[in-house]
Amino acid sequence: MTHSESGSATLHTLLAAALLLTALAAATLWSTISTARHKLTAAADLTALSAAQSLATTQTLTTPPVSPTTGRPHTTPPKPTTAAAPAMESLVTIGSRTTPEISLSTQGLPAVGSPSADPPQPNTPPAAPCETAARTAMLNKVRLASCDVTSNAVTVQVALELDLSLAHPTLTATARAGPL
Fold first, then answer.
1. Are 154 and 177 in contact (CB under 8 A)?
2. Domain segments of the chain: what residues?
3. Is 174:155 a contact under the CB 8 Å cutoff?
4. Burial of 135 (0-12, 13-18, 19+ CB in 10 A)
5. Average of pLDDT values for 94-113?
6. HSE (CB half, 13 Å, CA atoms) of 172?
């Protein structure tokens, strides 16, 4: 090794370390964006499906059934009601005492530990599809950017702002749900 080549191994090692750190940072950044993109796509799909389900529920409740033979809505007379239907219950034996156990799900009440604070009211109409989409997007920690409802389908666009050390890019995903 000559006097002019001394210290070149140190420079080569520092250059290799810098390249390795750059490659590691790029791989971490790519992995973070790729994972966020997959989560965003899944959230968009779930948001569109829940909005379409809300749309189908709303349409089912507002449109009367159609007769397959005449093509006109059925007009069935309402059945007389004498009393409210009892809740489904089962008997639970505690010691020598038997008590009825009433199911919360048949009462329309949220289950224990449910994030829903307000129990649904018996005659409350279902939420509009875009309201359902906004709630589902919020629960998936994304922002509902747009919601387009047609007669039988829902198209939603959700957005997610990434908090990276170098920048704050906003990723978007679009999903449509409805009949084929």
1. yes
2. 10-61+126-180
3. yes
4. middle
5. 42
6. 6
Cβ-based neighbour number of residue 57 at 10 Å: 15
Residues near 33 by beta carbon (within 8 Å), at least 6 away in sequence: 162, 169, 171
Answer left, alpha or beta for residue 55, where phi above 0 means left and psi between -120 and 50 means alpha.
alpha
Q: pLDDT (tens digit, 9 = 90+) per residue, 52-99?
A: 998 888 776 655 555 556 666 555 444 444 444 333 333 444 444 444
| Per-residue tokens: 160 | 């997610």
Judge contact between 153 and 51, C-beta under 8 A. Answer: no
- The answer to whether residues 98 and 92 touch, using CB atoms and an 8 Å cutoff, is yes
Cα separation, 157 vs 66, whole angstroms: 34
Q: How far apart are CA 177 and CA 49, in angstroms?
A: 5
Q: Which residues pair with 102 in a beta bridge?
A: 89
| pLDDT at residue 59, as a whole number | 73
Q: How far apart are CA 28 and CA 18, in angstroms?
A: 15
Burial class (CB in 10 A: 0-12, 13-18, 19+), 94: exposed
